[in-house]
Design goal:
The chain has about 90 residues and is mostly helical.
Length: about 90
């Protein structure tokens, strides 16, 4: 049986794994374009999280020094490097 931290780590590992898969798709693919999309307009409704998915991914990969979108995309393009990142993300 997994404890809470192990479960959170497993979910984060799977999220990052699928994100890397999406980013490695051709640039024309919608899943690639919107993998780290942040809308540039509008406001959040009260109670909505202030953290975007891109910020969540950057924080998960590197809590001390969050990565930019370009750094995340470059890391995901190297499959072996991305696998190392996903396996090491948020390990405690």
């Amino acid at each position: 049986m997994l404890d809470e931290n192990q479960l959170v780590n497993e979910v984060q590992r799977r999220q990052l794994s699928k994100l890397g898969h999406s980013i490695r798709k051709p640039q024309e693919a919608l899943v690639n374009r919107y993998a780290l999309y942040v809308p540039g307009h509008g406001q959040r409704k009260p109670g909505r999280p202030k953290t975007t998915f891109k910020d969540y991914v950057a924080q998960t990969i590197s809590p001390q020094l969050p990565l930019t979108e370009n750094e995340i995309r470059q890391g995901a393009m190297d499959r072996d490097h991305w696998k190392t990142i996903t396996n090491n993300a948020q390990r405690q």
